[in-house]
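Example complex used in Figure S2.
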Amino acid sequence: MDIQIMKEYLPLYIDALWLTLKIGLLGIVLSLVVGVFTALFRFYKIPVLDKLSGAYIELFRNTPLLVQLFFLYFALPRIGIKMDAATCGVLGLTLLGGAYMAESIRSSLEAIDKIQTDSALALGMNRRQVMTKVVLPQAISISIPSIVANVIFLLKETSVFSAISLMDLMFTAKDLIGLYYKTVEALALLVIFYLIILLPVSFLGDYTERRLSYARSGN
Amino acid sequence: MEDSILKIDDLKKRYGKDTVLNGITLSVSEGEVLVILGPSGCGKSTLLRCLNGLETIEGGSVRFKDEIVNDENGVSSDITELRQKIGMVFQNYELFPHLTVFQNVMLAPTTVCGRDKKEVEKEALTLLEKVGLSEKKDFYPSKLSGGQKQRVAIVRALIMHPEVLLFDEVTAALDPEMVREVLEVMLSLAEQGKTMVIVTHEMAFARAVADKVILLDGGVIVEEADPETFFTHPKSERAKAFLEGFSYERVKGKKSIKKGA
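Predicted assembly (480 residues):
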């Protein structure tokens, strides 16, 4: 393995790392927002929105991100909606992530016993207070493991961004292989950089899960 | 009646085709302790849940003072205000597991009433002290025994200054030795003149605490009396049968079995 050339590649990978992180994190934060609202629409069975949310979830969970990105990047401009590659990346990740987050959060909301709601209502709290102070905090802590799993999944999915010409880690590696044929070095760096992003997320997930389960059950 | 706090008039509750409550008429006056007895599934808990609008009803009405809480048109639009005056304690405590004891007690007064935090904190500590739990204030509910949880739940209801308190089989989930610590808190509330509606299976406690006892069966009130009359000379056959169910006769032939062994 040519360590010297790997050192020379490093700055390019670091640039790509930032791009991957920026788009990835923005997409994840937005997908949590979309996920919470979609989950609430479904949980409260709000007319129309409930059905739309269901259709949205099925559409985005059952099509590959690559196809969704192609649609956003190549098909939408044909009907007059033009977005740059980075916007398409964030939007694609948000829509895909939102569908997964929604399902995680909805199932956690449903896991909270209904009598917890009754007991909060009996204290004179209104529906919104019951949700934000009693049900949602408990649901979030239950859904942490599956939210972390979603975050890891979404960060890995960013590797398809290269297909819409975003210069992320995958794009950089493929580019360098094409230029210098140093396949092993380029791919080894790619693996290392994905681990740099994802291992901390896994560890943080384990840690928060322990903390939250302590808060929840005291154990 | 002028001084009645809760007035229930011909209340009817159905779940689908099943009639759970079939015309309950009842009133609870200021300072009165009403105990509701009855076999499992007779609708005691459902009746209690109708009183603070956790259940909708199909007929009749529930009034708090002069205000309608619940009738066939649905639950009052002022229900959140009404519920602050009608406290409730549940069988399985239903403390909020993600909050400490102190946070559990503080949550409703600070978020619902917007009361001064300092003043509520002081009151929370005093109330926890009274039930002997001030040193547990920073514990999460999972670290408490059932009896301790239930006392916290009572404090959580009391801090809202309710004018009437509903107790739904609050000792049914407790180990026998913890029942007493909860019942003593309730007895002292009765002594302070708090208005209470209590669903319970603790006959001795019912007799000690009640001003009025009703027996519910098949969705109707089959007996309504003061506790002495109820427990010593019940009028209805149903009440007699119900009370007999709580006494045991020595198992016949037990000795002879032992001899044979």
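The CA atoms of residues 123 and 227 of chain B lie 34 Å apart. The interface with chain A takes residues 49, 52, 54, 80-81, 83-84, 86-88, 90, 92, 94, 96-98, 107-108, 111-113, 139-143, 156-157, 160 of chain B (CB under 8 Å).
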